[in-house]
Amino acid sequence: MAKRRLLFIGLDAADALLIDRWCDAGLLPNIARMKARGTSWPALATPAEVFHVSAWPSIFTGTPPDVHGLYHAYVTRPGHQGLLRPRPDESPVPFLWKLLSDHGKRTVVMDAFLTCPLRDFLGVQIVDWGSWSWFWDPTIVPASVGRDIRRKFGSYPFEDHSRVGVTPIVDFAGFRSRLLTAVARKTQVVKWLLEREDWDLFLVVFGEAHPAGHYLWHFDDQTYFLNGTAAPDQPSDSERGMGEPLRGGYVARGTGIGGLL
Predict the structure, then answer these.
(1) Residue 251, Cβ neighbours under 10 Å: how many?
(2) What pLDDT does 15 receive?
């Protein structure tokens, strides 16, 4: 019998209402096909309404934040002054790929939100190569996979959240271009890994919708400027020629998903 495998594709901070709208408009045919062929398309409640970082760990562990304990970008630890980054390997609940590894199943996990390398892991761990927010130093285990990725594809062509937050965006067109390039490059790396590696679960998170929602929303949403008053980052006349970059990013991710399928 052929081995049964699971491909898990995450879209960090993607808006389900926008996906529905653009599926109905025919702009996201690959996602629309998945919806039509799948068993369900449910709307789920999220703990992120209260603890904004906790949604992904809740998915990865199947437990709420008060059980897995990963609820914020920084945590405190008894006996230590100052803030620390959370360590998923110190959570009382293992992530699902750790459970699979312990049972002899191989996982390729790439850019899962809020994670860190695990010891004695069966598979490939790519931590914060192309994440929107880094919770760990970018790490690839085994190191040979990292060297091959750098040699074949180069680095991820978009900046980390901390750099965007400190430096105001003055070139929105360049920002959009780097995001689209990032989607295409991550898709290339994932396709290469899908064919190269032996895996039972392949989990990859595309994080590009997250910065796009933060910094490009106002290009697509005409109601963003309330009562005709422009926000400080209102597009200039020259930038209005960009069209609808938020929608374009979703279309690019939909195309990437089609390539993986």
Answers:
(1) 17
(2) 92
Q: What is the DSSP string of 103-129?
A: TT--EEEES-SS----SS-SEEEEESS
Amino acid at 15: D
The four Cα atoms 151, 155, 185, 218 give a dihedral, to 10 degrees, of -170
The torsion angles phi and psi of 249, rounded to 5 degrees, stand at -65, -40
The helix, strand and coil proportions of the chain, stated in percent and rounded to the nearest 5, come to 45, 10, 40
Cα–Cα dist 205/133, whole Å: 12
- pTM summary value: 0.89
217-256 pLDDT per residue, tens: 888 876 765 545 555 455 565 566 677 889 999 999 999 9
Q: Cα–chain-centroid distance for residue 110? A: 9
Q: How many helices (H) and strands (E) does the chain have?
A: 11, 7
What is the length of the chain?
A: 261
What are the Cα distances from residue 21, in Å, to 197, 226, 250?
Answer: 36, 23, 11
In this structure, the number of other CB atoms found within 10 A of the CB of residue 224 comes to 13
Residue 61 burial by CB count (10 A; 0-12/13-18/19+): exposed, middle or buried? buried
